Amino acid sequence: MTDNSVSSNSPVRPLRVAVVGAGPAGLFTADALLKNKSFDASVDVFERWPTPYGLVREGVAPDHQSIKGVTRVFDRVLQHPRVRFFGNVAFGEAVTRSGLNALYDQVVYAVGAQTDRRMGIDGEDLRGSWPATDFVRWYNGQPDCADLTFDLSVERAVVVGNGNVAVDVARILLTDPEVLARTDIADHALEALRHSRVREVVMLGRRGPAQAKFTNVELKELGKLDGVDVVVAPEELELDFASSSAVEDRRVSRNLEILHDYAERETNDAPRRLTFRFLVSPVALLASDGDVASVRLEKNRLTQSEGGYLAAEGTGKYETLEAGLVFRSVGYRGVALPDVPFDDRRGIIPNREGRVLDSPGGEPVSGEYVVGWIKRGPDGVIGTNKACAAETVGLMLEDAGRLPTQRGESAVDPDAILAVLAERCPDYVTADDWRRLDELELARGDAEDRPRVKVVRVDEMLDHIRKRGEA
Ligand code: NAP
Fold first, then answer.
1. What is the rounded CA–CA span in Å between residue 24 and residue 67?
2. Of the residues 202, 213, 216, 305, which should be mutated to test ligand 1's pocket, given the most ligand atoms within 8 Å of the CB?
3. Is the beta carbon of 131 within 6 A of some atom in ligand 1?
4. Which of 9, 31, 192, 436 has its CA 20 to 30 A from that of 147?
C-alpha cells in the first residue's frame, strides 16, 4: 500500500501544487487537479505577465474570438477558493526552482514555447526579417512586443512556412483593417495596419501541398477575405507518387480540394493578393541598404526516407523573389528555465509523459512535472492541452501518495510564499486584481463595440490595478 499522507482522507492538509505559467496548459492542469477525487489539491499559479491565459491572449488571432471562449473555463479556475493567481512574477527571479520545491509538494512547468525556430540561412537577421511569433505577439498586444515597428510601407511580404501561424499572419496582413477594428486586436497594430501598403503576401511551403500543416477551416477562410485574390499555380498542386497516398488523410484531401478551387479561380484585380508557393525553400535573404529586399529561393523535390517521411531536397534551380518584409513562421521553440533540466535538441523540458527527467532519457526528478508545449513541443490546438494536462495530473496523483515526508512537511505553510513575494516581488497581481483589469478592458471594448480593448503595457496595467484597488 502507498502512504497517502496528504490525501483528502488525511486530516493533515491538502496537496500543495505550484503551476508555473497561466496559459491553457497551466490552467487546464489546475482544473484537472481541482476536479480529481483522490486528493484535495490547492494550486498556486505563477505567471510572468499580470494577465493570465497565455496563448489564448497573445497567440490566438483577434479575428478568432470563438476560440477565446475557453477563458470562461479558465476564469472559473482562477476564481476557485483553492486557487491563487500570482501574476507579474518571473520564474528564476522572484521565485526559483529550489524555492518552489521547498514550498510545494509538486511543481508543474507550463511555460509554453517562448521563442521561434531558426531557418539557419544567410540574411535571416536582416532588418525586415521577423519571426512570425513577434508579429503575432505585436498584434495581440503582448507587452514585450508592443513597441516593435514593422515596415508596412512595402508592397510584398513573404511568409515562410505552411502552418496555421503562417495562415494567421497572412490573414491579418490582408484583412480589411475595418474588419479587424471590431476585434480585440491591439490598438497600435490596428493603427499601423490601417496605413499598410502591403498588397501581396506570398506564402512559401518547402514541401508540397499534401504536406502543408494548415487545417481546412483556416485555409478556407483565406479564400473568403474581401478584396483579396488568391493565386495558386495549378502545376504546383501536382502530386508526386509518394504524396498521392497522403490523400487518404481527410485533412489533406480537403486541403487539396480547397487549393484546387483557388487555382481555378479567376483573379479580379482585387486590391490585395495572396499567393501560395509550394516546393520552394528560402536559401538566403538579400539586402538593399541593410533592409531585406528579396528572398533567394531554391526549387525543391520530395525524397522519401526509410521511415516514409517525405523531405524537401533542393534541385539546384534558383529564383529571386522581391519582398520588403519576411515573416519566418517555421515553428515555435521552448526556452530553458533557470536551473530546470532542458533538452536543447528538442526545445523541451525532458520528461516521460509529464514527469520531469534530470536529463534527456535520464531519471525522473521527484515532485516536478511538465505540461503543454514545453512538455511535448509546439503542436496541437488550445484544446490539445486538456488531454495533455490530464496525462500529467494522472501521474502527479499517482506520485502524490509517495512524496518524501521531508518535502511534504516543508510544504505545510500556504502563507510562506506570500512572505517571499512580499519581499521579492511586491507588485504581484492576484486573481481579483486581474478581474479588475479584465473589467476595464471589457468596458473599454463595450464603448467601442469590440470584445475588449487591451491594455498592453505592464506599468499601465499595474497603475490601473492599484487605482481601482484604492477606490
Ligand atoms: P507548424 O504547424 O509546425 O508549421 C510549421 C511550418 O514551418 C511547417 O509548414 C514546416 O514545414 C515549416 N518549416 C519548418 N522549418 C522550415 C524551414 N527551415 N524552412 C521552411 N519551412 C519550414 O507550426 P505553427 O504554424 O507555428 O503552429 C504551431 C501549432 O499551433 C500548430 O499545431 C498549429 O496548428 C497551432 N495553431 C493553430 C491555430 C488555429 O487552430 N487556428 C492557429 C495558430 C496555430 P515542414 O512540414 O516541411 O516541416
1. 12
2. 213
3. no
4. 436
Cβ 231 vs Cβ 237: under 8 Å:
no
Atom 29 in ligand 1: residue holding the nearest Cα? 379
User: Alpha-carbon distance 466 to 459, whole Å?
Assistant: 10
User: Which pLDDT value is given to residue 1?
Assistant: 32
Give kind and range of the element (H or E) at residue 79. Answer: helix 71-79
Measured between alpha carbons, how far is 84 from 262 in angstroms, rounded to an integer? 50
Q: Residue 87 forms beta bridges with which residues?
A: 429
Q: Closest Cα to atom 28, ligand 1: which residue?
A: 379
Q: pLDDT above 70 covers what percent of the chain?
A: 94
Find residue 13's DSSP bridge partners.
none
**Where does residue 384 rank: exposed (0-12), middle (13-18), buried (19+ CB within 10 A)?**
middle
- In 91-218, DSSP assigns E strands to 106-109, 115-116, 129-131, 156-160, 200-204
Strands of the 310-322 sheet, one edge to the other: 280-288, 291-304, 310-322
Q: pLDDT tens across 81-90, in order? A: 999 999 999 9
How far apart (Å, rounded) are the C-alpha atoms in residues 342 and 350? 6
Nearest to 14 by CA among 430, 403, 453, 465: 403
pLDDT band at 99 (very low <50, low <70, confident <90, very high): very high
Written as one letter, the residue type at 407 is R
Q: Are 75 and 27 in contact (CB under 8 A)?
A: no
248 residue type, one letter = E
The mean per-residue pLDDT over the stretch 366-380 comes to 97
CA distance 319 to 296: 6
- What whole-number distance in Å separates Cα of residue 221 and Cα of residue 172? 12
